[in-house]
Amino acid sequence: MKNNIIDLLIKVGAIIKDSHFVGTSGKHMPVYINKDALLPKTKYTSQVGVMMAEKFKNKKIEVVVAPAVAGIPLSQWTAYHLSRLIKKEVLAIFTEKTLENDQILKRGFDLAIKDKRVLVVEDIATTGSSVKKVIESVRKAGGKIVAVCVMVNRDSQLVNSKTIGVPFFSLATYKVPSYEPKDCPLCKKGVPINIQFGHGKKFIGLKV
């Protein structure tokens, strides 16, 4: 199945342009990738799983791990399609965020990873921080990281195999400029901050 992830995201209305968004990192940007527009649509989320599974079907993956919450459907679908392709069960598990913003394994999932070949999947890579925390937890549990794959990498110069420390892949790179608030040209032009998507509400002090 040949699909373009960017076309798919546009089709489901996940790429929103020409506004003023605040990302998880606090940086401002004119484009937002709203993964929440994709995840309820199982047909298209499954297609993303196919794309990722096809990429790693020859890598002897035994477990697919993703950070909660948005990564869970990606780990499920990728593991499902890998299982189908290699005719062997591939497990799907997830890490959970702590109050300290780490990504840890709970629910006995650490036992499912020990000595297993692991693929880490994620939706959007902006700085790579979440993926690095998942990698750390997998290694602590004795898992063997084969690779990381994300749907979209927003900056291949910032997030790549060298900066992540393991083989890193993405289904697409979609460069979105981002700015520190003090340097943001959108702020300087008086473009209102979008409070519907991203972290705009938090930035301007509204109750989330």
End-to-end distance: 40 Å
CATH architecture: 3-Layer(aba) Sandwich
What overall geometry do the principal axes of the alpha carbons give?
globular
Number of domains: 1
Summarize the structure.
By secondary structure, the chain is α/β, with parallel strands linked by helices.
What would you note in describing this structure?
By secondary structure, the chain is an alpha/beta fold. The chain has one domain (5-202): Rossmann fold, CATH 3.40.50.2020. It contains eight helices and ten strands. The chain has helices at residues 5-11, 42-56, 71-86, 109-113, 129-140, 161-164, 185-188, 200-203; strands at 15-16, 21-22, 28-29, 32-33, 63-67, 91-97, 103-104, 117-125, 144-153, 168-173. The strands form three sheets. The chain has a six-stranded mixed sheet with strand order 7-6-5-8-9-10, sandwiched between helices. Strands 1-4 form a two-stranded antiparallel ribbon. Strand 5 (63-67), helix 3 and strand 6 form a beta-alpha-beta unit. Helix 2 (42-56) packs across helix 3. The chain starts with a helix and ends in a 5-residue tail after the last helix. The model has no long low-confidence stretch (mean pLDDT 93).
